[in-house]
């Protein structure tokens, strides 16, 4: 009996690799003879870099400015001329307690440095995992590091951060790195938020980054001004619609990438292809996936939906292990034959790594019955 365990991270408590290993231990404890394969998965957000490195990618380590401007070490994944820059690795919140001031000043310059590093290394394709950012500057910091100039009415460079963009008077694209036009640039995102408005970068995600209502208003004003000036002075790649799906990803970095000519795509499918999920699933009798929280967002582009879709294509049953289940009976829309929620078997696990790992092992043991059922049903497939 062959089982594929392909989990995403449980944010803040277990990486994808740790989650897969814990569930696998639980399965083997109940059924020692099982052939269990682990394939940690991600959807383009935070945790994508670790999943790719676990899957055989190499990496470079470089020093870049963090969201607060301080230098920090960050990794960039690479394989066969394709580079992956993870936003959360470079300008994420990390362990910091966010404040309104941080939210307004947070800067994406480090992303530009990482892209420039990949260009210097001869990259043919650069993928940017959009998720887990501390920034809300529309990618302005990234664009600066790649050669764009942001000037106020006095012709002076703007300060960093989303709020400062309200003073933007002029954009100068003449110094933009010409190598960007000769490579493929891809933004991997798992949200469809626009840049502006009630469902945009500031309103929806600003509070998660420490912004209070007044800070959200100032950031929104800055991003709106940025979009107005871009409409008047578009970049070489052409104007990018700030209302397009994904433009608001990672504090507007999705839109910033579009200004460089990037394509925005669902991260889950791309990462699944890169890690060989299709081939791994085709040889399995049961697939187990999961993430921290199963909810309506999981139905479109998140790891459980991607893994379940591939399993459905191969007519392989799929179960899920999640920290919290907010879908209930709607989980059937994903084709899940069973959902085990850690909160139901071990209580709240958020922020408690040891408790999470133990609960994941227990979930694996509980799923042994699903394995047995899949084995009985296997001839029907």
TrEMBL record:
<dbReference type="GO" id="GO:0031388">
    <property type="term" value="P:organic acid phosphorylation"/>
</dbReference>
<dbReference type="InterPro" id="IPR004381">
    <property type="entry name" value="Glycerate_kinase"/>
</dbReference>
<keyword id="KW-0808">Transferase</keyword>
<dbReference type="InterPro" id="IPR018197">
    <property type="entry name" value="Glycerate_kinase_RE-like"/>
</dbReference>
<dbReference type="InterPro" id="IPR036129">
    <property type="entry name" value="Glycerate_kinase_sf"/>
</dbReference>
<comment type="similarity">
    <text>Belongs to the glycerate kinase type-1 family.</text>
</comment>
<protein>
    <submittedName>
        <fullName>Glycerate kinase</fullName>
        <ecNumber>2.7.1.31</ecNumber>
    </submittedName>
</protein>
<dbReference type="Pfam" id="PF02595">
    <property type="entry name" value="Gly_kinase"/>
</dbReference>
<dbReference type="InterPro" id="IPR018193">
    <property type="entry name" value="Glyc_kinase_flavodox-like_fold"/>
</dbReference>
<keyword id="KW-0418">Kinase</keyword>
<dbReference type="GO" id="GO:0008887">
    <property type="term" value="F:glycerate kinase activity"/>
</dbReference>
